[in-house]
Amino acid sequence: MSVFESVLFKTTSSVIETEDLVVVVDPTWLPFEIAEIKDHVERIRGDKELYLLFTHGDFDHIIGYGAFPDAKVIGSAGLRDHRNKQQKLAYIHQFDDEYYVDRDYDITFPVPDVVIERDGQQLQVGETILTFYLAPGHTSDGLFAIVNNTWIAGDYLSDFELPFIDHSCKHYVQTLEKAAMIIENHQDLILVPGHGKATNEREEIKRRHHMAQSYIQRLIEAVQTEEGEALDVLGEEMPYPSSFTKECHEKNIEITKSEYGS
Predict the structure, then answer these.
(1) Who's near 86: CB < 8 A, 6+ residues apart?
(2) Sequence-ordered list of residues with C-beta below 8 angstroms from that of 160, at least 6 positions apart, any chain
(3) Model confidence at 54, in pLDDT bands (50, 70, 90)?
(4) Fewer beta carbons within 10 Å, N or C terminal of the chain?
(5) pTM for the whole thing?
(6) How far apart are CA 137 and CA 252, in angstroms?
(7) Host H or E run for residue 33
(8) Sheet architecture: strand order including 128-134
(9) What is the pLDDT averaged over residues 215-239?
């Protein structure tokens, strides 16, 4: 497996090679970065089947979709039925226009060939088995995937990034429970988050899970008790303080209040 980390938001793109296939996960961001991923795939692919796996439909994760036109696409039912496809594409065009970025492929929203609709659903290609779990919370269409001993976690369990809740705090809690189950049932995992560093250290994986769980629990408690100071402290824990992380924290509060507030 190879993990490519973008200079933007430490976003990861993974390439997993087995005897039967090559899986490219969330190819992103800048044209030269996507070209590097594409060159790597061409070197190792041979006559193997090529799959694109999208962990969710945020624009930074789908931006390289068009660079792999002959790949079969894997995504959740939520990705297939995404309600804001045009908005996500607009974000890509806005980014490219703002920074004068040219791409040599069309910008379109991924269309899954393999649709994941339930936890534990599997795809077998030759001797390779991919196992999937729905992972809503950050977004409504989130997806975990396990390929051999590699756990593709999407925008969960970063080594530095606290939870960003764009969909549902309650679903985020449930997804963290699934993550705990995966950690318990798999002893030799390589965790690859959507942002940050991959790790195969079990204690580090547990630390990241605890960090996310602690943040969510304290967020819910602060919302329920209307502790403004506690909410401010949580906001100060956000790494890379900026208008962006401030907005993300405020959205976390807004969504959590809608679900847990009095």
Answers:
(1) none
(2) 10, 195, 196, 239
(3) very high
(4) C
(5) 0.95
(6) 11
(7) helix 31-45
(8) 122-125, 128-134, 143-147, 150-152, 190-192
(9) 92
